[in-house]
Design goal:
40 strands; 8-stranded antiparallel beta barrel
Length: 668
């Protein structure tokens, strides 16, 4: 190995991921960081760290000269770009080559040919690869975008030429959406990649997004390492990935893999890369794009192949030949990745920022049941989630012998994953794992829109789930009461007796439960005669309650809130109140407190910067009309009127930084 010191031109979990493999290989590492990342995990993990500028990535992580200065300062002889930022920037790779620094990635020519989405489409077509119809030329303005979209036929996908990770992408179903989508995509592309070129292609309805992992060396060998199913997406951002795909047969897998290899060889590719395809219901596949970098979802491929892709990238960059051939690549079992984002699913997945007051991922490694758990992360308890970067917190992965085993392992791991202090999508991920359609593998890129057309509002417990949670709540309440009696002691010869009959209210239900305790455990007996055997180890102060109910394990997040008990499990988030029958009788007479009326206000749905205010005081707005645009975590969010109204006050101005629920405007 000729590489001695690697500078990671990135941040967050991917920087941490690269550092882990570099340490395994005995290679020194250098982190770079902005003002916002001074205390970040990747900075703590690296052997050296260099400050490169202010928080915005346009002033730090994507400024080539600042990265080059850090290389010169530390004497790094190689650079791993991770994904995003400068990972597919040919000018950066060229600058490294001119400096005599090894780029742990593909050659400059391949980046130029395939990293640019317009050029890659043309090359794929010339190579005989099936491509989606579209306009591959540059688009000058919104009017031209509308004309092109109309000629192709709606719906269309508006995409950034230098894009990736869902940034700079919009689906348009009509002229107005094409015009607006062009502007938003152009703005996002410029801020995220420093390149605002846009192209348009036909949007294939009911598609699956399936990608092939390729790996090549500098000696002419290129292999494919199976596929990844990435169809569970929201706003073109992948949320859940798995390998292999539950849809492909061996013949289609081989055809896609061979085509991906042929395309890679056509551009002289080496290192790790991904060829993405859209696959229809008849297993016809169409080239979408090639990502000339490591993908976010690479861990699922590593789990089913046993190949460390980062290690192979480093070895290839050092000039080594691949030590295995295509016949050696075996797909073992099934792996699933859930992306844990700082996005609040109860607020339409809007970004959430703040301090991680609790961050306790489940234990990584091999489990007693044969499953494996892996968590790639770049955060820590007490750290800050910034508004300047991608909202990813972690990538939780499970591996099992088969798909349902991996799904069940993921459900259990999500139950054990504790994140507090910010909004996050963990309840949503848990909910998807339980859906029958997902478990059957009936996926498309429209899955989330179809399954959650009105957004995500949590999972309402069915009868069986409600009884399980009621039994848990009674166990907790009984434990708390017994402890209180022990602490208070006795007065004279009298000691308060804790009863065993309770009324539990949760999620609109009222359940009568009798708790029967014996040496064999606890029995929760309900008014309808059903009973549940319950064994658990919960004690006051614990935030995870691990139970066995009817020999089935159950991990519930517990938060004691005064007289109430908040319980979270499998996407259910409910507050249980456990009362004696007499107190429950009196509670039914209490008036319910109504929430404040905010129907005539537009409140900021997330912390962010106001980039546009589209109306003024006195304007009459119509339903669906754009009112303001908020930018947060590199994404533009257009806020629209819910109904016809008159604006009587505009409280926010362009350029203002707003907190969540801060007033933007009021209506009559």
């Amino acid at each position: 190995m000729t590489i001695k010191k690697i500078l990671i031109a990135n941040r967050g979990e991917i920087a941490c991921r690269v550092i882990k493999t570099a340490k395994k290989l005995g290679i020194a590492t250098v982190a770079v960081y902005s003002d916002a990342d001074a205390d970040a995990l990747h900075v703590k993990m690296a052997d050296e760290a260099v400050h490169i500028g202010p928080a915005p990535s346009s002033q730090s992580y994507i400024v080539i000269e600042k990265i080059m200065d850090a290389i010169r300062e530390t004497g790094a002889d190689a650079v791993h770009p991770g994904y995003g930022f400068l990972s597919e920037n040919a000018a950066f790779a060229e600058a490294l080559r001119n400096e005599g620094v090894t780029f742990i990635g593909p050659p400059v020519g391949a980046i130029e040919a395939m990293g640019d989405k317009i050029t890659s489409k043309k090359l794929a077509a010339e190579a005989g690869v099936s491509t989606v119809p579209g306009h591959m030329g540059l688009i000058e303005d919104a009017a031209q975008a509308v004309a092109i979209a109309s000629s192709i036929g709606y719906p269309v996908m508006i995409k950034a030429s230098a894009g990736g990770g869902g940034k700079g992408m919009r689906i348009a179903w009509n002229d107005d959406e094409a015009r607006e989508g062009f502007r938003s995509s152009k703005n996002e592309a410029k801020s995220s990649f420093g390149d605002d070129r846009i192209f348009i292609e036909k949007f294939v309805t009911q598609p699956r997004h399936i990608e092939i992992q390729v790996l090549g060396d500098k000696h002419g060998t290129v292999l494919y390492l199976g596929e990844r199913e990435c169809s569970i997406q929201r706003r073109n951002q992948k949320v859940i990935e798995e390998a292999p795909s539950p849809f492909l047969d061996e013949a289609t897998r081989r055809a896609m893999g061979e085509q991906a290899v042929a395309l890679s060889k056509a551009v002289g590719y080496h290192s790790a890369g991904t060829v993405e395809f859209i696959v229809d219901g008849d297993r016809n596949f169409y080239f979408l794009e090639m990502n000339t970098r490591l993908q976010v979802e690479h861990p699922v491929t590593e789990l089913i192949t046993g190949i460390d892709l980062v290690e192979q990238m480093i070895r290839v960059a050092a000039g080594e030949k691949l030590s295995f051939g295509q016949e050696d690549v075996k797909l073992d079992g099934w792996a699933i990745e859930s992306r844990l984002y700082a996005e609040d699913p109860f607020r339409n997945f809007l970004p959430s920022i703040g301090r991680l007051t609790r961050y306790r991922p489940p234990q990584e490694g091999k489990r007693s049941d044969g499953t494996t758990l892996r968590n790639d992360t770049g955060v820590f308890e007490g750290g800050e989630i910034s508004m300047y970067y991608d909202p990813m917190i972690a990538k939780l992965c499970t591996h099992a012998a088969d798909r349902l085993g991996a799904i069940d392992a993921m459900s259990a791991a999500l139950d054990d994953f504790q994140v507090e202090g910010i909004g996050h999508n963990l309840p949503f991920l848990s909910a998807v794992m339980r859906q029958q359609r997902f478990r059957e593998g009936r996926l498309t890129t429209a899955y989330i829109a179809e399954e959650f057309p009105d957004g995500f509002h949590g999972v309402e417990p069915g009868e069986a789930d409600a009884k399980n949670l009621a039994a848990v709540a009674v166990f907790i309440q009984q434990t708390l009461q017994e402890r209180a009696v022990q602490i208070s002691g006795t007065i004279g010869n009298h000691r308060r007796v804790v009863g065993h009959r309770w009324v539990v209210t949760l999620s609109g239900r009222e359940l009568e439960v009798e708790s029967r305790v014996s040496v064999d455990g606890t029995q929760a007996v309900f008014a309808d005669g059903t009973s549940l055997s319950l064994a658990g180890n919960w004690m006051p102060g614990r935030t995870i309650a691990s139970f066995s109910i009817g020999n089935q394990p159950m991990s519930v997040k517990v938060d004691i809130q005064g007289a109430a008990i908040r319980l979270r499990w499998r996407g259910i988030d409910t507050v249980a109140r456990v009362r004696t029958p007499r107190v429950a009788e009196l509670a039914r007479l209490m008036p319910k407190k109504l929430p404040p009326d905010t129907s005539k206000m537009l409140l900021c749905p997330m912390p962010g910067v106001v980039t546009a205010v589209n109306v003024k005081e006195g304007d009459v707005v119509e339903a669906g009309q754009a009112l303001a645009t908020i930018e947060a975590m590199k994404m533009e969010n257009i806020l629209r009127a819910e109904k016809r109204a008159t604006v009587i006050r505009v409280a926010a101005t362009e350029g203002a930084s707003l907190a969540v629920d801060e007033l933007i405007m009021e209506f009559e």
